[in-house]
Design goal:
There is one protein chain. This protein is α+β, with helices and mostly antiparallel strands and 193 residues long. It has seven helices and four strands, in the order E-E-E-E-H-H-H-H-H-H-H. The chain has helices at residues 46-54, 62-72, 88-106, 120-133, 135-141, 143-153, 189-192; strands spanning 2-4, 7-12, 31-33, 41-45. Helix 2 (62-72) crosses helix 4 and helix 4 packs across helix 5. The longest helix is centred in the middle third of the chain and has 19 residues, at 88-106.
């Protein structure tokens, strides 16, 4: 468990269900921002967390996704309009652009994860995953959205010279989480059981 100023991050050993159980066929949640008695907590599946940072090209990252929900929720509601990030001059263009991009998802003319079409909050999180994981591609394919998100996050990450590290990971490799166990017995057990 990692303590943060805004709350707590709970790492679960596997995916979980809405009752926070890690077994059963309905255990398919990879991450969430808690509500009710779990308010202020971000819950992440450890394998999903590791996968998100090991696979830097799929435009998916559970930790980024849920962290953006947490930022969005700082004004009291998860609605895709984070008051802490969106100054008034960005709010109307942001809403208009989100609506346009969600329509593109529905029309199947977008490379943004279709889950972003669920609602404005999910769009913001999904687009943020893409923005941080594939900034150069995002800037090329969605220049208007990239520009606005750069202003929202105060980041122009496409100009950074980021180098990816490739690591071959087999079932008998040491687990990258540092546990000292083999990958198949630790974070990779969901793939090898």
């Amino acid at each position: 468990m990692v303590q943060q100023n805004e709350g707590t991050i709970l790492l679960y050993p596997a995916s979980f269900n809405d009752k926070f159980e890690t077994s059963g066929s309905d255990s398919n949640i990879l991450g969430m921002v808690g509500t009710g008695y779990m308010e202020g907590k971000m819950i992440l599946s450890k394998p999903a967390l590791l996968h998100g940072f090991m696979n830097e090209s799929d435009k998916k990252n559970t930790a980024i996704h849920e962290f953006v929900h947490l930022i969005d929720k700082m004004d009291g509601v998860v609605d895709g309009l984070p008051a802490i990030l969106l100054e008034k001059q960005y709010a109307i263009p942001w809403i208009d652009l989100i609506n346009k991009k969600i329509e593109e998802i529905y029309a199947e003319t977008s490379d943004i994860n279709p889950y972003g079409g669920t609602n404005k909050a999910e769009f913001f999180s999904v687009a943020s995953e893409y923005f941080f994981e594939r900034p150069k591609l995002f800037a090329r394919t969605h220049p208007e959205l990239y520009k606005l998100m750069s202003e929202v996050f105060n980041q122009n990450i496409q100009v950074r010279n980021m180098k990816k590290m490739n690591q071959k990971l087999g079932r008998n490799s040491p687990c990258p989480c540092g546990s000292g166990l083999k990958f198949k017995r630790c974070c990779g057990r969901v793939h090898y059981n």
